[in-house]
Amino acid sequence: MAGPLARYLGGLGAGSAKAEPLADSRAEAALRLRQRVALAQSKRPVAMSVANSDETNIPDWIACYTKGLPQNRYGEVVPAAYRALLRACQSGKYVDFERIPLGAGRKLANPQAAFAFHLEGGDPHCFGIPPAPSITSQEGRYAGLSTTDLRGHYSLSDVPFGGIHVVPVVNGKVVARGRRHPQ
User: Fold this and answer.
1) What are the tens digits of pLDDT across the range 47-59?
2) 83 and 11 within one domain
3) pLDDT band (50, 70, 90) for residue 163
4) Which among 51, 57, 64 has a CA at the least distance from the CA of 131?
5) Do 77 and 157 share a structural domain?
6) Which segments of 10-137 does DSSP mark as H helices, in order?
7) Of 14, 42, 44, 88, which one has the greatest count of Cβ atoms within 10 A?
8) Which tens digit of pLDDT belongs to each residue from 81-101?
9) Rounded Cα distance, 171 and 83, in Å
10) What is the pTM of this model?
């Protein structure tokens, strides 16, 4: 192990205050280094995950990410589909993810990513992030002002363009896939 790196990582081993002597081979040194770093990383606590409460406080999950799930003609998620997604996320089981109904021929983009293990760097579950602002908060309302048009376009992302007969109203304008039509 290189001198400066050995001095830096010397304290990562269990009770070891000094660097190990040079290994017989680079592969052995790399193995020992990886084992010490993995042991140190494994002792980090899992970060607390805090939701912004939009999922429970706002009806019909209208403030939640529902792309790829079946939706009604107004772009609102079908409740049974969203409940299936919640069940799968809570269980983490592959079979539950396979039971999630999909809409408009779409697939969910890597819905099990949170259950993957990363072999480089620390475990992502050990790094906390603050919850996103609720759309009912002052910060969320301000952010919502700039995304209102995008939200209207997004609500139609799973609706086939030829099948739009009634479209949602956003900021007083009827919006359909990037085109605005007079009311």
Assistant:
1) 998 888 899 998 9
2) no
3) low
4) 51
5) yes
6) 26-42, 54-57, 79-91, 94-98
7) 88
8) 999 999 999 999 999 999 999
9) 30
10) 0.60
